[in-house]
Specification:
The chain is α/β, with parallel strands linked by helices. Helix content is 22%, strand content 27%. Helix 1 packs parallel to helix 6 and helix 1 packs across helix 10.
Length: 410
């Protein structure tokens, strides 16, 4: 079968790109070897950042500039004003709260958060504060950064493009036929369910598989050394907790970032990231949960954590390699032959990556309507489970011995 494009990887970047290229008239398929969003997308906190965390030092950094327009892009999609239509995506919150610790650096960070951003914090009165922020020091602000449920977002796009998304066995059912390194002639698939085969001849091959990009590039005859991984060790808290989405600032860093969603049994679950997740890479689960409990007790004095249960999960942020191994400033796109490799760097940048890759694509050369009947019976991937819904997620009270679920980067 001849295709305009073949996308590998069904996370935020791949699905957004699938929507864009499909609407542009391309004959395009997406292949996923695990579950949609497994790895980085489903493990993310779902915050549609507007650049705040990159401007806390009082400077409008390149990262902040690259992100500051994107909350409007996402908001319009969530309202159905533009494509992709994300009106069925669950919105955890329409805003985040900002509060600060009792340090001079923290107060400077709150000022820096206002520098040059389109999405700016608005100071609120003590009467407007959520109960969870009672007793916190100093200023509390509301920031119009929306928070989505990653699972709901993935399900929304997967439902819209179910006929163009195929499950594959990347170990035993995927074969690249190359004319030369980076020039893919054909890709042969073997169905993971019935052993049937499908041969695809794409004009363009696109890797948006996060950490899986390294192996895919090797299969296409390209170097895998262009990718880096930066780990995080995230914390989950479950119990009689208030709903809260926000950042506690401590100078030019986010001391903790909290997002909330109820689990399938209606229990409130907090995802806790920020600086504690960076520091947690060097800690075991017991040490990290004890550290985070102390941090939360310090920055949220009104929240009772005595009945809370705790868990952690580790995830790698797979990105294009930088010279110093640090965080990339924006998306990264590499082209070689008819192969394009992309990393969005952050969830919020998925639209930017889709725009960049689709703008490089040649015009659709197949004028007939895309006929999906040849793979109508091909298996479809499920959407990845949220970290706290996975069977491998173990909960404990602080003081018991935990087990850390390890997540892939893609």
């Amino acid at each position: 079968m001849r295709l305009d494009a073949l996308i590998f990887g069904g996370g935020a970047a791949g699905l957004w790109l699938l929507d864009r290229m499909s609407r542009d008239g391309h004959h395009v398929l997406l292949l996923e070897s695990h579950s949609l969003g497994s790895g980085q997308t489903i493990a993310s906190q779902g915050i549609i950042h507007g650049g705040l965390k990159y401007s806390l030092a009082g400077m409008l950094t390149k990262s902040a500039k690259n992100i500051r327009e994107l909350p409007t892009v996402w908001r319009d999609s969530l309202l159905g004003k533009t494509t992709p239509n994300l009106t069925r995506t669950q919105l955890r919150s329409d805003c985040c709260y900002l509060w600060q610790t009792d340090t001079l650096a923290s107060r400077a960070g709150m000022i820096g958060a206002r520098i040059g951003l389109k999405v700016k914090p608005e100071t609120i009165s003590s009467d407007e504060r959520p109960e969870s922020l009672d007793g916190v020091y100093g200023t509390v602000a509301r920031l119009p950064e929306q928070v989505i449920s990653p699972h709901s977002f993935l399900q929304d796009l997967a439902t819209q493009y179910d006929d163009r998304i195929l499950q594959i066995d990347a170990q035993q059912g995927l074969e690249f036929q190359l004319d030369s390194p980076g020039e893919v002639k054909a890709i042969r698939l073997i169905s993971p369910t019935d052993g049937s085969t499908l041969e695809l001849h794409p004009r363009q091959v696109i890797f948006t598989a996060g950490g899986g990009n390294a192996r895919l590039r090797q299969q296409a005859g390209l170097s895998a050394d262009v990718m880096q991984r930066r780990p995080l060790h995230m914390v989950l808290v479950r119990g009689p907790l208030p709903e809260l989405n926000g950042h506690c600032l401590d100078g030019a860093r986010t001391r903790v970032t909290i997002t909330s969603e109820r689990d399938q049994l209606g229990r409130m679950v907090w995802q806790v990231g920020g600086q504690v997740a960076e520091d947690g890479v060097k800690m075991d689960a017991r040490s990290l949960t004890e550290h985070v409990r102390r941090e939360l007790s310090s920055v949220l004095p009104a929240v009772d954590l005595r009945q809370a249960e705790w868990s952690t999960y580790a995830v790698d942020r797979a990105e294009g390699a930088t010279v110093n191994g640090g965080r990339p400033e924006s998306i990264q796109v590499l082209c070689a032959g008819n192969v394009t490799t992309g990393w969005p760097t952050k969830l919020v940048l998925a639209p930017v990556l889709a725009e960049e890759i689709s703008s490089r694509a040649t015009s659709p050369y197949l004028s007939a309507p895309f006929d999906t009947t040849p793979f109508a019976e091909w298996p479809r991937p499920a959407v990845a489970a949220l970290p706290w819904e996975e069977a491998s997620c173990h909960w404990w009270n602080v003081g018991s011995v935990p087990v850390i679920p390890r997540r892939r980067a893609a």
